[in-house]
């Protein structure tokens, strides 16, 4: 694979939003025709050194993305942890190993940051994603809850 990981730029926002919208769940909650809220979120996001929006680039094209957040806490003897969210690979590049590569890169980034663990969430309906994460060594150890505001 001729692919590398880099921090997303504001120019990447349209492609990232298109990937977020290109699945059954994203199609119901994303609005790629109105980029203003995404651009505002990107501005807030990029100002925080503990938040990273990363993209996988292959031959000059963004083919995958994820968000990596470093969280600090008191539990586990004051350990920090990494949270992976919003993992997406372009539809036409799924099955090529990009998702696994992207997750492994994020895990290495978390390791470099001194994180004690990496956690992620996945919608309960995404059974294929659950198998994917388990193949990468993640374990379903917790039950997650959300409250829509």
From TrEMBL:
An annotated Gene Ontology molecular function: acyltransferase activity, transferring groups other than amino-acyl groups
Annotated coiled-coil segments of the chain: none
Domain N-acetyltransferase, chain residue ranges per copy: 3-149
Pfam family, one: Acetyltransf_1
The entry's keywords: Acyltransferase, Transferase
PANTHER family, per the entry: AMINOALKYLPHOSPHONATE N-ACETYLTRANSFERASE-RELATED (PTHR43877:SF2), AMINOALKYLPHOSPHONATE N-ACETYLTRANSFERASE-RELATED-RELATED (PTHR43877)
Protein's UniProt name: GNAT family N-acetyltransferase
Species name: Streptomyces sedi
Species classification: Bacteria, Bacillati, Actinomycetota, Actinomycetes, Kitasatosporales
């Amino acid at each position: 694979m001729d692919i590398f990981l880099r921090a997303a730029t504001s120019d990447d926002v349209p492609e990232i939003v298109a990937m977020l919208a290109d699945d059954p769940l994203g199609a119901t909650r994303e609005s790629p025709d109105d980029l203003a809220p995404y651009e505002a979120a990107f501005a807030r996001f990029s100002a925080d050194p503990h938040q990273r929006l990363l993209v996988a680039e292959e031959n000059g094209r963004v083919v995958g993305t994820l968000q990596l957040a470093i969280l600090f806490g008191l539990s586990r003897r004051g350990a920090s942890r990494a949270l992976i969210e919003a993992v997406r690979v372009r539809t036409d590049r799924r099955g090529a190993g990009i998702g696994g590569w992207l997750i492994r890169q994020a895990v290495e980034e978390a390791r470099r940051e001194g994180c004690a663990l990496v956690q992620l969430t996945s919608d309960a309906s995404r059974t294929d994603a659950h198998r994917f994460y388990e193949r990468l060594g993640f374990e379903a150890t917790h039950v997650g809850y959300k409250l829509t505001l």
